[in-house]
Design goal:
The complex is a heterotrimer of chains A (about 450), B (about 400) and C (about 90). With about 400 residues, chain B is α/β, with parallel strands linked by helices. Chain B contains 10 helices and 20 strands. Classes of the chains: A alpha/beta (about 450), B alpha/beta (about 400), C mainly beta (about 90). At the A-C interface, strand 8, helix 3 and strand 9 of A face strand 1, helix 1 and strand 5 of C. Strand 23 (about 450) of chain A pairs antiparallel with strand 18 of chain B, so a sheet runs across the interface.
């Protein structure tokens, strides 16, 4: 294979709201931009587009606020730059991004890197969560809004946070009966988010849009409820649901069974921080913002020279935050490469969006008691089939750190590299759910690639 | 806080865990045994190595050493299990015709020790392993080798120890910061969490053994970290069922290093293929060797060569998904024999370290020999080649 | 149980084979979504206990939907269908 090398001024990782906003601004200023995105089309998870050739995303559960996002997609796709979809970045250092695309091994050489890889769902392990048909809330969204596929007939939606409503809306639009929609946080705790919603016009309109959608479909969101377990022969057929206390601990006396054929679970989001950590960027742990996230300054600069970050990787905040941070990151890149001044309005916009997002997310901060949903024989690490019991035995013998638990039972050592179990693993293994988690352990390849991709990787 | 025990083992890798296991089994159950580990149990070399159970037939002593240890591995599997013990056997593969000349010698060595092994031609090779490249000229099959998951084996050894002796305590996350002595006799260990009085201390800290020796006021032991780059595939994709080694591995891994291990700038490193199928259907791919101090960053050039050589023997490796790559550090003893036994210049100080790439294979016999010496029992095999006294001044 | 949302425009149809059976999919589908629309929910068997696993994250993170496409193990949710593609269940053989 020939060495496949790209040169550009800026490499942007991710084509969600943050990456698109940054890339569009940079391209408009005349810089050479390459965007590397794992998805097949621009938009990221939040502004998922149907495949090329299909039409009618407006028919599938898009609130009015998404117009903004789809306008951004249009601008992004019209701007002059090299957009590469289906590209997995597997190794990096400042100014260099190695990626696999279509089975080929590529290197992008660039002066600056903007990281906007987004986030993925946090799912707390519960009995039966490995059955086919049980999936993340995000997976259901992709299914409906990204592919126009109907997830099932009778759905259960569980979790916590502002993404439950869009999930329910998508299912309703796909003609699925939502049998129950369960928010683990209590109504009273959630009230704390109210000022942030009422005080922001776009968020208020969005909330009302979802409220109307649910009302028309006859779906009532139940507060302080969650899933206790799922059952079925070869796929999910029943779910046991019940109430949780304020810490999220299941109240077993309230358990009742319902018939469902698909379950979507999303207990918030986890920043996709691996690439940033691998580049050596400083991080911090903040439970309400999804756990470990990169630390950036007032111009989206990470602690590593030439590496900028925008959106969820800097802490969960949503699409509006990501777009504002993408714009600011682009302005900061232009400042460093061209000496252009950074517009103070961009900084103010980021600060305002972050304030609103933080106020909202504080009401849905992870509830440690939810880790008690797992029974001793519940699989915690889905890749290596490690049960809660084995993870606890490992922690008792090998030590309490994330690495110790991994070494003691191989949890987190499969292909997902602990992205799924990592956020819960230490808490469940140590039965000390309120402790800060160790930073994720990041190893190359950051995404699984073919052996020949590593062998053929262009030398830098 | 001061506590008193009978035996402190420093280092929670495979060697330390094996010493704890055999001490618990051979010493009276009233013996108080404490394992101190600075990080997690199996958190260093034993958590970043391959899981090779390998018999080396070069000399009768080597054979007895490795074979006895592999038999002890089999016993641990019977007793406890849970560490993916997999008796895969081993295929020593020739790359080209000139490698074929090595096979009769190897066959003769196995046979001289009474072991079964057979030389296969290219067609027979692919009957054993259909995934092998079609142009391989031949190889040697030895059925007695195997594979384990070392980090899980550490846990199995400690569980056996705690069942045999209720006075075994495992303390991860507790570093040793000094030693207490009275003249030429050790009297205790100072740890991050207080002083522990004891009569006997085992230094089983692998690549850190020289540092611990120095901390005890002794000469640095001639053990040097020798880095290896490794890669592992996803599950269910292993194109092989047998452990594979290049026949030149023997010269490369077990021959004397041709570079000075103390001069880390000099060594460009080398590699020889070792591929191990795992129980979950993954495949572990090594191995490279390079002296460069404690540096654990990946040497991309060596890793690429290693993967590319694996592809040469097993073409399907090219498209196999790689999940992780990393570096582990082997504790290389300057004369290529591990150090197992008492340190003559400080009574009560024992050493079990310096196994280079055979630490997993040799862990059980190492624990057994050391425990036998501690207990005053006759050694299972001739232990004199491994006595640390050879390095005492 | 599953299927397609009506009225989303026409995409060219391709045929893939899963577990020896032919099924129709649309260009632009991922393997995982084409199979889900055809009510195929078990995509692999877990590596230790052999239990069925299916789509979980649907965005390339979790590696639960591993399938074998033309002999190579890939993520079903990030691999696009191709006419004539042969797909087998991933995992324990």
């Amino acid at each position: 294979m020939n060495a496949r090398i790209l040169e550009a001024d800026v490499g942007v990782v991710g084509a969600g709201p943050g990456g698109m906003a940054a890339a569009r601004r940079l391209a408009a200023a005349g810089l050479q931009v390459v965007v590397l995105d794992e998805g097949q089309r621009a938009g990221g998870q939040i502004f998922r587009q149907l495949p090329v050739g299909a039409s009618g995303h407006d028919r599938i559960a898009e609130p009015p606020s998404h117009e903004h996002g789809h306008r951004l997609i249009e601008h992004f796709e019209r701007a002059g730059m090299d957009r590469r979809h289906g590209a997995s970045v597997w190794d990096a250092r400042p100014g260099r991004l190695w990626f696999e695309q279509g089975g080929e091994s590529w290197l992008l050489r660039c002066q600056k890197i903007v990281l906007a890889p987004g986030a993925y769902d946090r799912v707390v392990p519960f009995p039966g969560w490995t059955l086919p048909g049980v999936m993340t809330a995000g997976a259901l969204q992709v299914m409906v809004r990204g592919f126009g596929v109907v997830p099932g007939r009778r759905a259960l939606v569980v979790g916590s946070g502002p993404l439950l409503l869009p999930t329910v809306a998508s299912l309703v639009s796909a003609g699925v009966q939502v049998v129950a929609a369960l928010e683990a946080s209590s109504r009273w705790r959630a009230l704390r988010a109210l000022p942030a919603v009422i005080g922001n016009g776009a968020r208020r309109r969005e909330a009302l849009w979802y409220a109307k959608k649910l009302l028309l479909a006859g779906v009532r969101l139940r507060w302080g409820w969650t899933v206790f377990g799922c059952e079925g022969d070869g796929r999910v057929q029943r779910a046991v649901i019940g109430k949780v206390d304020r810490a999220g601990r299941p109240r077993r006396d309230t358990a009742r069974a319902i018939d469902v054929d698909v379950v979507g679970a999303g207990f918030g989001l986890v920043p996709s921080v691996e690439l940033g950590l691998h580049l050596g960027c400083a991080s911090r742990h903040d439970a309400a913002r999804g756990g470990h996230h990169l630390v950036v300054d007032d111009a989206q600069r990470t602690s590593v020279a030439g590496v900028f970050a925008a959106g969820e990787i800097c802490g969960i905040g949503g699409a509006e935050v990501a777009m504002a941070e993408g714009e600011l990151a682009a302005a900061a890149v232009l400042h460093e490469l061209r000496g252009a001044p950074i517009d103070a309005a961009l900084r103010r916009a980021v600060a305002a969006e972050r304030r609103a997002a933080d106020a909202m997310l504080a009401a849905f901060a992870p509830m440690p008691g939810l880790h008690e949903l797992a029974s001793p024989d519940t699989i915690v690490c889905r890749c290596e089939d490690v049960t809660a019991q084995r993870a606890r035995a490992a922690a008792a013998l090998h030590g309490s750190s994330l690495r110790a638990v991994k070494m003691g039972c191989r949890a987190g050592m499969g292909p997902c590299q602990a992205r799924i179990c990592g956020p819960s693993l230490q808490a469940i293994a140590n039965a000390r759910p309120d402790e800060v988690m160790d930073r994720p352990i990041v190893q190359v390849p950051l995404k699984v690639v073919r052996s020949e991709t590593i062998v053929d990787a262009p030398r830098d | 806080m001061t506590e008193t025990v009978d035996l402190v083992v420093i280092g929670g890798g495979i060697i330390g865990c094996s010493v704890v296991q055999h001490a618990a089994q051979l010493l009276p159950p009233s013996t108080r045994i404490l394992l101190l580990e600075r990080g997690p149990v199996a958190g260093a070399t034993s958590g970043s190595c391959m899981g090779h159970l390998m018999v080396t037939p070069d000399t009768p002593q080597d054979y007895a050493f490795t074979r006895t240890s592999l038999d002890l591995w089999g016993e641990l599997q019977q007793q406890e299990g849970g560490f993916d013990h997999n008796p895969t056997g081993a295929l020593y593969l020739a790359d080209a015709d000139e490698d074929l000349e090595l096979l009769p010698t190897l066959l003769e060595q196995f046979r001289a020790n009474g072991a079964t092994a057979e030389v296969l031609d290219g067609r027979q090779l692919r009957e054993v392993e259909p995934g092998l490249a079609e142009d391989l000229p031949g190889g040697l099959y030895y059925p007695g080798d195997g594979v384990v998951l070392p980090m899980l084996a550490c846990g199995a050894m400690l569980r056996v120890a705690q069942r045999a002796n209720p006075n075994v305590v495992v303390r991860p996350g507790c570093a040793v910061i000094g030693f207490e002595r009275d003249g030429d006799r050790i009297t205790g260990v100072r740890s991050e969490r207080g002083t522990i009085r004891c009569e006997n201390v085992v230094n089983a800290t692998g690549v850190w053994a020289p540092d611990l020796a120095e901390l005890a006021g002794q000469a640095r032991l001639p053990i040097y970290p020798r880095a290896g780059n490794l890669a592992i595939t996803g599950h269910h994709v292993s194109p092989i069922r047998t452990q594979l080694l290049e026949v030149s591995y023997l010269r490369f891994a077990h021959g004397a290093a041709t570079v000075d291990p103390t001069r880390t700038d000099d060594d460009v490193g080398g590699h020889a293929v070792n591929m191990q199928p795992q129980t979950n259907g993954g495949c572990l791919i090594g191995s490279t060797r390079q002296f460069r101090g404690m540096d654990k960053t990946i040497n991309h050039a060596l890793l690429r060569r290693s993967l590319s050589r694996a592809q040469r023997y097993v073409p399907a490796v090219a498209t196999a998904p790689i999940v992780r790559t990393w570096v582990g550090l082997r504790p290389y003893a300057i004369d290529k024999h591990p150090l197992i036994g008492p340190w003559p210049q400080l009574r009560g100080l024992w050493i079990a370290a310096g196994h280079e790439g055979l630490g997993i294979s040799l862990a059980p016999i190492t624990g057994r020999l050391l425990a036998q010496q501690l207990a005053g029992l006759a050694p299972a095999i001739d232990h004199t080649p491994y006595l640390p006294a050879r390095f005492a001044r | 149980m599953s299927g397609r949302i009506e009225g989303l425009g026409e995409r060219p149809v391709v045929t893939i084979t899963f577990g020896g059976r032919q099924l129709a999919a649309f260009e632009g589908d991922t393997v995982a979504m084409a199979l889900w629309a055809d009510a195929q929910v078990a995509l692999r068997q877990s590596s230790r206990n052999g239990a069925p696993r299916g789509v979980f994250c649907n965005m390339g993170i979790c590696y639960e939907c591993l399938v074998i496409v033309d002999g190579v193990t890939v993520r079903g949710c990030t691999t696009l269908v191709r006419d004539g593609m042969v797909v087998e269940r991933g995992g324990k053989p």
